[in-house]
Every structure is written in C-alpha cells, then in structure tokens.
Amino acid sequence: MADRAASPPLIAFLARKLVGALAVALVVAIGTAILLELAPGSSCDTLRAEAADPLFGVACDDPLPLRVSRQTIALLTLDLGHSAQTGRPVVEVVADHLPRTALLGLVAITWGTILGLAVALAQARWPRLDRPLGALGLVAFSLPSFATGHALQLALGHWLPVSGSEDAMHAYLAPLAQLLDHARHLVLPAIVLGLGPLVATARVARAAIGEELDRDYVRAARARGLGAWRVWTRHVLPNAALPLVALLATELPFCFGGAPIVETVFGFQGMGWVATGALAAQDVPLASGVLLGLAGVVALSNLLADLVHAAIDPRVRLS
C-alpha cells in the first residue's frame, strides 16, 4: 500500500520535469530562430547575397513571424540542413563533435568535484586551512580561462599537448595508444575547465558540512559514543550531499558555456570550437545546430539531476 501511495507523486514529478524539459527545448528553438533572423548576416541576408535556395524552406519575402515559426519547426524536427562551409549535414557535424565536448565536461566536472570535496573536508577538519584555501580558490575562480590556459601551455607544454584533440598520426596508432592520445590531449583543457566546478564544490560542500556539524542529531550521535568515522559517513556526508546534487545541475551548463573559450585556446575540436568557427564564418545552419545541441545536453543534465535529487530526498517529489 505504501508503494502504491508513493507512485502517483513520483509519476507527477516525472511528468512535470519532462514537460519542463520540452518547454526549454521549445524556448531555445524559438530564441535561436529569432536571433538568427535579427543578427547581421542572417540567413536571408546570406541567401540574397548568394542567390541561394531558401534555408529551412523559408521564403525570405515572408513576414518575420512566419519565417521564425517555420525555422522553429525545422529546428525542433532536427531538419538543420547542411553546413555552408563544408556542405556536410549539420546533424552529422554535431554528432561528431558533441561527444568530445561531453567527455571534456565530464572529466572536468569529475576531477573538480572530487578535489573540491577533498578541499571542503580539509577545511572542516583543520579550520586553520579554511581561509588560505578559500582565498586560493577565489583567485583561481577569478582568473580568466584563456589566461589560465595560456599559462598552462607555457608551463606544461614540454610534457603535454597544447593544441588539438588528437595527434596527426592518431589513426595509425594501436587502440590503447589512441586512448592514451585522447587522454593526453584532454589533460590541459580539463584542468582549466574544471577550476570552476572545483571552487564551487568546495564552497558549497564546506557550507553544507559546517551546517550539518552544528545540528542536534550530530551532537546526539557524538554523545552516544559513536566514532568520528560513523558520524561523518552515516550522518554528516549523506545529508550534506543534497546541495551538491543541485550544484551538479548547474556545473554542466557552466562547463558547456566555458567550452568555446577553452576549446579555442587549446584547439580542442569540440562543440565550442565548432560554434566559434560557425559564428565567425556566419554559417547559420551549423550555428543553429550547435546551439540546439548544447541546449539539449543542458536540459537533459538538469532533468537527470532533478531525478537523482528526488531519489535521494523523497521530499522533493512531494513539493
């Protein structure tokens, strides 16, 4: 009976989140279509200059609302056309480069989260380290990513690749050597991109741990004679993890937002690198496909974070 009573709120929660994700996709598609129409060098400007065929089936003499609605439908149905630079289908270009950016963001978030948790635990365990580590994190977070990237290229360029996502002879390497080649090219961009998640995780985790340590149930557990390890692992850390789950939902959009700068600095051929080249060349179909792909990944990450949060804290499902 308890499971049956709990399933309707869970289904309603899932339905709300799915509707929200679809609404985000619709807003992004409409916003992308409007921006592409209003930006200098828009699709119709390019077509008039080149006397080319209509883009997305849009007649440039139609009213603006009609053009925007047709482009929105085309974007939502993934009818993205072909790249003006290479002639390849935009869907293929996005499919080729999106996994690289997703892997870069995953590696950056993983190492940033793990090290951020370690810093927060060190600050909570040894209060004397609180201010020095906090000040160091603030400095690291304040540095522009392109400046940090160039500094790492100068400092570590003798040992690690400073440009590209793979070596020129990558295709001729053995499978294990190819994997190592990808890993070596990921190191420097992931370090730069992971500084934001590191600092954010450290600050949020430090605040959450400090709040849990002051709660009455922690004092009661210590008064009952529980060891420090059991108090931390069974009481403090599980409850302090709830804000971190919500933080993860914001870190992935943060990484994708910083990817164009980091990937441009390191020549890492991901979605950010493609987006920068498409905007510079006014490749409207490719730019719209990249924006829609990035927005889809962000919406999916937010949905997964909400589901994990609901699994950890049942109160979220009932709110």
Account of the 3D structure:
The protein has helices at residues 2-38, 43-50, 64-76, 90-125, 130-142, 145-156, 175-213, 216-223, 228-266, 271-280, 284-312, 315-318. It has 12 helices and no strands. Residues 1-6 and 49-57 have low confidence and may be disordered. It starts with a helix and ends with a helix. With 319 residues, it is mainly α. It has a domain at 100-282: MetI-like fold, CATH 1.10.3720. Helix 1 (2-38) packs across helix 3 (64-76) and helix 8 crosses helix 9 (228-266).
Summarize the structure.
The chain has 319 residues and is mainly α. It has twelve helices and no strands.
Q: Which terms would index this structure?
A:
disordered N terminus; 319 residues; 12 helices; mainly alpha; single chain; globular; 78% helix; MetI-like fold
